[in-house]
Amino acid sequence: MHSERIHGLDTLRALAIVLVMLQHYVLFVSNEDTFGFIGTVGWIGVDLFFALSGYLIGNQIFAALRSEAGFSLGRFYARRFLRTLPNFYVVLALYALWPAFRGGLEMPELWRFLTFTQNINLAPGTAFSHAWSLNIEEQFYMVLPAVALAFAAVRPPMSRAWLALAMVVGVGIAARWILWEQVVDGQRYGMYNYYKYIYYSSLCRLDELVAGVALAMLRNYHPDAWARISARGNASGAAGLGVCALAVWLFLASPRGLGVTVFGYPLLAVGFGLLVLAAVSQRSVLRTLRVPGAASLALWSYAIYLIHKQVMILLGSVLARAGFAPGEWQAVAASFAASVMAGLALHLLVETPFMKLRERYVPAVARAGSGLDGQPERA
Q1: In angstroms, how far apart are the furthest CA atoms of the chain?
Q2: What is the rounded CA–CA span in Å between residue 104 and residue 345?
């Protein structure tokens, strides 16, 4: 049985989808500084999604591994697939079968979407390009539980698990550094290469997922330390805001420079990790604060993420022909409202029926029992 709802996680998830929508509107509709610096760095919403997923999925796996019932890999994959694939396949079908929906953009080979490898060497500007983040998450869902089971079978000291996480971050830092020097620095198509080989790369974008997993490990394998740290949720939240502000400032000052490319993502991971910690800490303001509409946006966020960009692009053309410039508030309001409504429709018509099937036939990742975290999983 689930315990109280953690409003802080809803708030962070709602913030993440709003940030992504702001940036996509600027990039693909208005092509101007519509929302100030927030629109410029709205891409960090994806990184916030990664941190949330790392914590929620990691906590499910580790809690089940430590439970008497044990962890079921098959049940985990069944729950993941029922959660993520139906919405994805419906939107993918719109892009693949309805040329007008993709607005004339070239679409990568269908097999790349079906195998969740579309993000590998992804050419910027292609149709359904924002599915790159879903590819990374699906890869994460496939790998983490298998690695966790292997560690549980061998039972090494926990220090080795922490070392493994540190090595993942270190490999990402090294990969970004090497790739920046080889394909970005001084290259004619340096910015194009930056996105193709660094920004969309699984190896280069694991920092926030690792931050979430680290929190889940701390909670499940170091309960005394978790109790001490989570008792200071407000301090964690303040520190997280400070670190995120610093990271944003660095990305604004040198958007794709070497220093921020190499170290900016780990810094952002620390900031978002601290915010997730604050969101789940007892007596934290972020945990208990109810932001109007946040719970609904959080619930629909996955569906909105999948559908919103093309809705904005197509509606933007219609509004422009009707005389509404993209920067006018009427066009902005209409685009965001239409995106949310399209996401809601996808959630109700596709996601909800499959979620009901999941709760009926695969109610938990453990071999027996029900919820493990006190927060309905929305990762």
Answers
A1: 65
A2: 25
**Distance (Å, whole) CA 189 – CA 176:** 17
Would you state the pLDDT for residue 4? 61
Give ∠ CA 84-86-91 in degrees, rounded to 5. Answer: 100
Contact 51, 379 (CB under 8 A): no
Q: Is the dihedral of CA 11, 16, 17, 21 positive or negative?
A: positive
Q: Are 200 and 119 in contact (CB under 8 A)?
A: yes
Q: Beta partners for 366?
A: 71
For residue 370, is it within any domain? no
What is the DSSP annotation of 150-208?
Answer: HHHHH---HHHHHHHHHHHHHHHHHHHHHHIIIIITT-TTHHHHIIIIIIT-TTTS-HH
Cα 177 from chain centre: 23
Identify the CA nearest to 205 among candidates 216, 189, 194. Answer: 194
The pTM of the whole model exceeds 0.90? yes
Task: Flag whether 375 is in a domain.
Answer: no
| Any domain includes 84 | yes
Q: What is the pLDDT of residue 369?
A: 47
1, part of any domain: no
What digits encode the pLDDT tens for the residues 193-231? 999 999 999 999 999 999 999 999 999 999 999 999 999
Long-range contacts: 172-178, Cβ < 8 Å, 24+? 172/203, 172/204, 172/205, 172/206, 172/207, 172/265, 172/266, 173/262, 173/263, 173/266, 175/201, 175/203, 175/204, 176/204, 176/261, 176/262, 176/265, 177/258, 177/261, 177/262
What digits encode the pLDDT tens for the residues 11-24? 999 999 999 999 99
Domain that holds residue 280: 7-361
User: Which residues pair with residue 71 across a beta bridge?
Assistant: 366
CB 22 within 8 A of CB 39: yes
Residue 131 is given by DSSP the state G
